Amino acid sequence: MTQSRFDLEQAWAGNVPPHWRWARNKELLAESLSVSADGTEELLSVSHLTGITPKSEKNVTMTAAENLDGYRLVNTGDLVINTMWAWMGALGVSKQPGIVSPAYGVYSPRPNAPFNPGFYDYLYRSTPYVMEMTRLSRGIWTSRLRLYPDVFLSMAIPVPPLEEQRAIADYLDCETARIDTLIEEQQRLIEMLRERRSAVITHAATRGLDDVSLIDSHNIYLADVPAHWTVSRFSREIDVNGGQVDPQEEPWSEMILVAPNHIQSGTGRIIGRETAREQGADSGKYVADAGQILYSKIRPALNKVAVAVEDCLTSADMYAMSSRHDDDHRYLMYFMLAHPFHEFATLASLRVKMPKINRDELGEAPLLRPPVDEQRRIAAYLDEQTMKIDTLIAETERFIELARERRSALITAAVTGQIDVREVA
Question: Residue 78 domain-assigned?
Answer without folding.
Answer: yes
